[in-house]
C-alpha cells in the first residue's frame, strides 16, 4: 500500500483556491487517512518509543499524533520496569527510560503549528486533560446517609443489600489528622508505593516523586496510588486507622497473610483520577473511608452493566475482564446520553465519610480534587456464598453475576429450567477456538413500559418476562454442575488459587464449627462438594466402611484430589488432570507399594498401608464400584477410547513407565486440553488407606520447637534416602515394544533411540525429552504467570536454560552410555503431606500450658497442663499419587521451598541425613566446557524454571529481595548455593 506522505518541511499551511487552508489530512496520511484518529492512535500504542519518534518525522499529521501526551503515557507505562521516575512529561520520561546519550535528547524548541487539520477525538482528549472539576459535585440523594449506625441496623438494612454513606466511623482515627500530603511527604517521601494504571505490570513510584507528578501533570486519566502492600512498605500507616465494628467479620482472616488475597488499599489521587466501572474481585463487599478531598460515586445494582462498558468472559477458565472508558470520560461522554430512568445512583463522598459497597454492585469513582482514602474488601455471612460461587470453575455463572441476562443467549434460560442443568452438554465443552464471550449492554431505552424493568435488559435478548435476581439460588442455576471442579482450569483472575481456596474452606470448617452449615453451602458451590460426598459414601458402602458423619462431609487438605477422613480410614478419589492421568496416578502408586514390600524397604513403615483400591463408575443414574489392584486393564477402561497409548498385557499397564510416556506426550500442552476425557468423565479411580493419627505439619509449622524442626529435616533426609534407593522397575517391558522408537532433541538434532539399548538410556531419554518439550514455550508460560517473577529475568531465561537438557544432566558419554541411574521421585513432599505425632517426656512443676519464643518463629518447647514436656515427631509421608522416576534432586524443590520455607539450616540438616550422591564432579561429555553444568545449584534452578507448577512464584515470594535480581545466577546462588558445598553430593 502506498502512503504518499508529505514532507515534514511543509510547516506553513497550503491554501486552497478560496484562500482557506486546505485539509492536509489526505497528503499527510496517504491511504491511512481512511482510518479514524481513534484507530490510528490505538495502533501507535503498539509501537516502540523509538518507532513512534521516527514516525513523527514522516508528516505534519503524524507529528501531531505521535507527540500526544496520552500516547507517550501509554508507551512509557507499557515499557517501564516496575519503578518509574516522572520527568515532567511522559515523552521525556519514556526517552529517559531508554538511557539515550545526551545528544539524542530533545532540545526545548518552539512547538510546531499546522493549519488545515482538526480532530474531534484529539480535542476531546485534550479537553479531558485540562478540564476542572470544581463544580462537578453532585448528590442525587439515592445513597442514604447515616451517622453512627449500630451493627444490628447495618446488618438488617444495608449489609448485602444496598450502599450507604456513614459518618462518624473515622472520627477518632489518627489518620484524620496525620494523613495529609505534607505530613506523608515528611514521613514517607522515599517510600515506594504501587500505582494504579491499565497495565499488567506492577509499577511503583517514590511518594515525593508522585507528589511532584500530581502537582504538574495534565493527564486525562492520571495515575493514582492504589497500593495493597502499603502495610509492608509503611507499617506505621496500619496503626492510623481501625476497622469499624460494622466490618469486623471477615472470613478471609483465617488464612495466613501470604496466602490471603489482597484486601486493603491505600488510595491517593489528584483531580480527574479515579476508578473506572468495575465489580469488586470475587464478589466481595467493601468499605471506603475518605480522609481528605471529595469523591463522586456512581453505582448500579448487580447485573446492570453501565453504558459504554464491555464484559469479557473467557469460556475456558471463566476469567472476567471489563473494558470501558476512564471514570472522567464516562461522566463527560456517556452520562449525558442516559435518560433519567437509566442513571446510576450517585453521591459525593466528603472527608470523614465511609461508603459501603455491597457484593456484586457496579461502581465508578471520580476524584474531584486531591484525595486520600483507605479501603478494605471483606467476606462475611451475607456474601460468603457469592464469593464461593465466583470461585467455581466455568464461565456462564460469572457472566450472569455481573451482566445479568445480557450474559444469556436466546432460550438458554429455558434450557436451564427444563433440563435442571446449568449448561447444555454441548456447551460444557465449548469449541476451544472460541476463547472469549463478549457481553455488551444494550443502548439506553428512553422509556420503559415495565416499571420493574429498570433498565429494559430483558428486551435486549428476547427473554420475555425473565427478571435478573441477585439471589444465590437464581445464580447457582447457571453453574455447570457436571463440571469437575477439582480438575477444571482455574481462572488467573480468581482472587486466590485452587489450593488456597481449598485450604480456606478447610480452615473455616475446622476453626469455625458454628458456621458449618454455611460453609457446606459454599463448598457445594465452589467444589461441588455434595457430589463428592455422595461418591465417597458409595465407596464406603461397598467396602463395609462406616458412613461419613456430618463433621466428615468436607474433603480435607489442599491437594488436587478430594480426600476424606472417615473413622480410621483415608479415602482418596483420583481426579487430577482427568481420567487417564488419574489411572496412571493410582496405577503407579499401587505398583510402588507392591515393590516397596517386595524389597522390604524401611520406607514402608512410614507410608500409610493400602486397604482397598478400585474404580467408581456412574452409569444409568447409579454408581458401581469395581475393585482394581492396579494389575491388568479393567474392562470398563478397556471399553473407553480415551487412552492415548497402547498398553501391553503386563502386571501394571498403568505403572510408572507408561505414566512417564504419558507425561512426555502432554509436556507443553495447553492446560485446557488436559483432563478432558469426554465420555469417560464419570469414572473415578480411588484408594483406601489406613488413617494417620496426629496433625499435618502445616497445622504445626508456626509453633513447632526448633529441635522438632531439625528432627523433621533429619527424618525427611532418611526417608528420601530410602525412597531413592528403591529399585526402579525395568523400562524395557512396559516402555517400548521391539522396533518402536522415541524422539529426543539432543545437540540440535533429533536422535533416534532404539528400544534395544540398555533400559537406563531409555529412562534418561524420556526424562530429557520431556524437559526439552517444556522448554519450548517457557517464556510465554513465565509471562503468563507474571508477578512476582521479574520481567527482566523472564527476558533472560532463554540464555540461562541450556538448549538441550542433556547438557546439564551430564548423563551421556559419546551419546551412548549413562553416568547414573534415575530414581523414584515423590515430587510432592509438602507441608500438608507430612504427619506428626505427639510424644511426652520429662515432667515439670507448674500449671498452665505455655511456650517460649525463639528465633524464626519457632518455640523451644510445649508443656501440658500437668507440666509434662512434649514434642512433635514426624510419623508418615502421604500422597504418592505424583510419583515419578527421574533426577532425585527434584525432591529437594518442594522440601526446601514449602516445608523448610528456604531455611538453609534445615536444608543442611536434611542433606546431612540424606547422604546420597546427587551428581558427578566432572563431566564425562568432553563437549561440555561450561562450568555451570557442574553446579548442583544450576541444575536445581533449571528444574525450578522448567517445572509445571509456578515454583518461581514461591521463590520470589520467599525471597522478596530477589525481585530486584539482575540475573538468574543471583537467584540460583541465593536459593540453592548451599548445594554446591554438599560433600556427599557427588560420585
UniProtKB/TrEMBL annotation:
The keyword Nucleus applies. PROSITE patterns: FBOX (PS50181), JMJC (PS51184). InterPro entries: Cupin_8 (IPR041667), F-box-like_dom_sf (IPR036047), F-box_dom (IPR001810), JmjC_dom (IPR003347), JMJD6_ArgDemeth/LysHydrox (IPR050910). Pfam families: Cupin_8, F-box-like. Residues 232-395 form the JmjC domain. One of its GO terms (cellular component) is nucleus. Residues 1-13 have a biased composition (Polar residues). Belongs to the JARID1 histone demethylase family. PANTHER family: ARGININE DEMETHYLASE AND LYSYL-HYDROXYLASE JMJD (PTHR12480), TRANSCRIPTION FACTOR JUMONJI, JMJC DOMAIN-CONTAINING PROTEIN (PTHR12480:SF35). This is F-box protein.
Amino acid at each position: 500500500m502506498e502512503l504518499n506522505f508529505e514532507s515534514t518541511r511543509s510547516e506553513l499551511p497550503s491554501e486552497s483556491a478560496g484562500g482557506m487552508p486546505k485539509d492536509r489530512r489526505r497528503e499527510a496520511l496517504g491511504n491511512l487517512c481512511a482510518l479514524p484518529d481513534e484507530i490510528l492512535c490505538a495502533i501507535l500504542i503498539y509501537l516502540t518509543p523509538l518507532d513512534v519518534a521516527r514516525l513523527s518525522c514522516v508528516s505534519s499529521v503524524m507529528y501531531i499524533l505521535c507527540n500526544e501526551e496520552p500516547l507517550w503515557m501509554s508507551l512509557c507505562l507499557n515499557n517501564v520496569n516496575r519503578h518509574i521516575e516522572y520527568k515532567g512529561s511522559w515523552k521525556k520520561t519514556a526517552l529517559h527510560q531508554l538511557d539515550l546519550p545526551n545528544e539524542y535528547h530533545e532540545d526545548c524548541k518552539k512547538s510546531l503549528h499546522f493549519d488545515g487539520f482538526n480532530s474531534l477525538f484529539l480535542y476531546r482528549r485534550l479537553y479531558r486533560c485540562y478540564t476542572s472539576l470544581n463544580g462537578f459535585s453532585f448528590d442525587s440523594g439515592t445513597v442514604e446517609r447515616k451517622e453512627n449506625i449500630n451493627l444490628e441496623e447495618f446488618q438488617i438494612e444495608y449489609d448485602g443489600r444496598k450502599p450507604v454513606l456513614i459518618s462518624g466511623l473515622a472520627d477518632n482515627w489518627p489518620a484524620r489528622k496525620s494523613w495529609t500530603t505534607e505530613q506523608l511527604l515528611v514521613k514517607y517521601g522515599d517510600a515506594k508505593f504501587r500505582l494504579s494504571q491499565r497495565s499488567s505490570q506492577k509499577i511503583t513510584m517514590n511518594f515525593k516523586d508522585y507528589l511532584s507528578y500530581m502537582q504538574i501533570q495534565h493527564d486525562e486519566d492520571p495515575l493514582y496510588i492504589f497500593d495493597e502492600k502499603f502495610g509492608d512498605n509503611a507499617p506505621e500507616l496500619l496503626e492510623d486507622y481501625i476497622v469499624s465494628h460494622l466490618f469486623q467479620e471477615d472470613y478471609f482472616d483465617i488464612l495466613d497473610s501470604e496466602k490471603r488475597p489482597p484486601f486493603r488499599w491505600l488510595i491517593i489521587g489528584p483531580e480527574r483520577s479515579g476508578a473506572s466501572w468495575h465489580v469488586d474481585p470475587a464478589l466481595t463487599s467493601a468499605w471506603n473511608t475518605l480522609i481528605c478531598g471529595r469523591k463522586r460515586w456512581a453505582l448500579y445494582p448487580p447485573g446492570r452493566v453501565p453504558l459504554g462498558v464491555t464484559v469479557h468472559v473467557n469460556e475456558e477458565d471463566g476469567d472476567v475482564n471489563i473494558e470501558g472508558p476512564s471514570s472522567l470520560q464516562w461522566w463527560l461522554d456517556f452520562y449525558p446520553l442516559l435518560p433519567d430512568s437509566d442513571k446510576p445512583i450517585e453521591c459525593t463522598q466528603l472527608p470523614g465519610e465511609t461508603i459501603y459497597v455491597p457484593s456484586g454492585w457496579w461502581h465508578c469513582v471520580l476524584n474531584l480534587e486531591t484525595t486520600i482514602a483507605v479501603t478494605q474488601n471483606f467476606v462475611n455471612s451475607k456474601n460468603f456464598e457469592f464469593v464461593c460461587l465466583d470461585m467455581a470453575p466455568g464461565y456462564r455463572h460469572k457472566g450472569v453475576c455481573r451482566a445479568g441476562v445480557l450474559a444469556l443467549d436466546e432460550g438458554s434460560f429455558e434450557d436451564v429450567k427444563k433440563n435442571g442443568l446449568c449448561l447444555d452438554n454441548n456447551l460444557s465443552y465449548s469449541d476451544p477456538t472460541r476463547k472469549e464471550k463478549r457481553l455488551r449492554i444494550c443502548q439506553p431505552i428512553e422509556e420503559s413500559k415495565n416499571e420493574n424493568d429498570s433498565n429494559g435488559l430483558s428486551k435486549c435478548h428476547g427473554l420475555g418476562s425473565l427478571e435478573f435476581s441477585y439471589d444465590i439460588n437464581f445464580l447457582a442455576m447457571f453453574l455447570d454442575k457436571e463440571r469437575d471442579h477439582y480438575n477444571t482450569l482455574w481462572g488467573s483472575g480468581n482472587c486466590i488459587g485452587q489450593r488456597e481456596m481449598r485450604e480456606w474452606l478447610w480452615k473455616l470448617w475446622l476453626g469455625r464449627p458454628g458456621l458449618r452449615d454455611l460453609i457446606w453451602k459454599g463448598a457445594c458451590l465452589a467444589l461441588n462438594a455434595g457430589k463428592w460426598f455422595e461418591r465417597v459414601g458409595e465407596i464406603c458402602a461397598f467396602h463395609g466402611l462406616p458412613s461419613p458423619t456430618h463433621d466428615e462431609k468436607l474433603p480435607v487438605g489442599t491437594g488436587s484430589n478430594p480426600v476424606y477422613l472417615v473413622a480410621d480410614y483415608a479415602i482418596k478419589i483420583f481426579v487430577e488432570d482427568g481420567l487417564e492421568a488419574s489411572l496412571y496416578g493410582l496405577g503407579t502408586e499401587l505398583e510402588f507399594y507392591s515393590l516397596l514390600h517386595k524389597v522390604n524397604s524401611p520406607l514402608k513403615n512410614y507410608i500409610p498401608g493400602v486397604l482397598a483400591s478400585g474404580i467408581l463408575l456412574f452409569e444409568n443414574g447409579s454408581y458401581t464400584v469395581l475393585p482394581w489392584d492396579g494389575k491388568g486393564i479393567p474392562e470398563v477402561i478397556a471399553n473407553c477410547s480415551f487412552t492415548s497409548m497402547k498398553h501391553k498385557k503386563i502386571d501394571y499397564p498403568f505403572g510408572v513407565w507408561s505414566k512417564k510416556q504419558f507425561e512426555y506426550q502432554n509436556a507443553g500442552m495447553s492446560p485446557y486440553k488436559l483432563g478432558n476425557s469426554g465420555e469417560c468423565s464419570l469414572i473415578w479411580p480411588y484408594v483406601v488407606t489406613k488413617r494417620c493419627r496426629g496433625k499435618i505439619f502445616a497445622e504445626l509449622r508456626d509453633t513447632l520447637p526448633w529441635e522438632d524442626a531439625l528432627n523433621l529435616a533429619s527424618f525427611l533426609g532418611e526417608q528420601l534416602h530410602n525412597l531413592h534407593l528403591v529399585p526402579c522397575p525395568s523400562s524395557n517391558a512396559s516402555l517400548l515394544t521391539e522396533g518402536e522408537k522415541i524422539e529426543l532433541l539432543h545437540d540440535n538434532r533429533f536422535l533416534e533411540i532404539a528400544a534395544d539399548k540398555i533400559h537406563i538410556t531409555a529412562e534418561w531419554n524420556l526424562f530429557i525429552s520431556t524437559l526439552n518439550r517444556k522448554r519450548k514455550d517457557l517464556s510465554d508460560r513465565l509471562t503468563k504467570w507474571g508477578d512476582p517473577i521479574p520481567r527482566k529475568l523472564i527476558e533472560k531465561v532463554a540464555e540461562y536454560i541450556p538448549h538441550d537438557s542433556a547438557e546439564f544432566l551430564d548423563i551421556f558419554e559419546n551419546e551412548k552410555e549413562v553416568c547414573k541411574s534415575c530414581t523414584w521421585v515423590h515430587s510432592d513432599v509438602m507441608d500438608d503431606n507430612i504427619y506428626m505425632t505427639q510424644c511426652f517426656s520429662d515432667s515439670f512443676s507448674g500449671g498452665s500450658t505455655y511456650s517460649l519464643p525463639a528465633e524464626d518463629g519457632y518455640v523451644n518447647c510445649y508443656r501440658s497442663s500437668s507440666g509434662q514436656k512434649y514434642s512433635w515427631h514426624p510419623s508418615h509421608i502421604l500422597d504418592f499419587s505424583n510419583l515419578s522416576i527421574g533426577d532425585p534432586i527434584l525432591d529437594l524443590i518442594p522440601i526446601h521451598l514449602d516445608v523448610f520455607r528456604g531455611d538453609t539450616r534445615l536444608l543442611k540438616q536434611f542433606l546431612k541425613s540424606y547422604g546420597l550422591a546427587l551428581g558427578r564432579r566432572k563431566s564425562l561429555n568432553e563437549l561440555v566446557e561450561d562450568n555451570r553444568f557442574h553446579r548442583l545449584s544450576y541444575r536445581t534452578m533449571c528444574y525450578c524454571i522448567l517445572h509445571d507448577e509456578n515454583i518461581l512464584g514461591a521463590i520470589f515470594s520467599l525471597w522478596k529481595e530477589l525481585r530486584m535480581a539482575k540475573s538468574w545466577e543471583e537467584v540460583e546462588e541465593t536459593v540453592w548455593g548451599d548445594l554446591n558445598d554438599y560433600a556427599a553430593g557427588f560420585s
